[in-house]
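Renewal narrative, Specific Aim 1. Our central claim is that a sequence can be written position by position from structural information alone. The example that follows is taken directly from our test logs and has not been curated for this report. It begins with the structure tokens describing the chain, in the order in which they were read.
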């Protein structure tokens, strides 16, 4: 375990974990279909792991703040 991870655990903070499709849709308040369209057409940051999409909330938040989600 790295020192930074240990600090996060001691402070009861979760490290930047991978979110599932269901979790990211709930976080953004969107449907699964909308999420798939955004991945395909708006370059939403997503990572394919096997047959599943995974997301880092920090990457998605940055993508939204950059204005790419509105294009």
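The sequence written for that structure reads:
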């Amino acid at each position: 375990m790295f020192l930074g991870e240990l600090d996060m655990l001691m402070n009861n903070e979760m490290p930047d974990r991978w979110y599932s499709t269901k979790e990211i849709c709930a976080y953004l308040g969107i449907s699964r279909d909308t999420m798939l369209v955004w991945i395909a057409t708006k370059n939403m940051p997503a990572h394919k792991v096997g047959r599943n999409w995974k997301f880092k909330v920090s990457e998605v938040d940055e993508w939204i703040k950059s204005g790419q989600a509105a294009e």
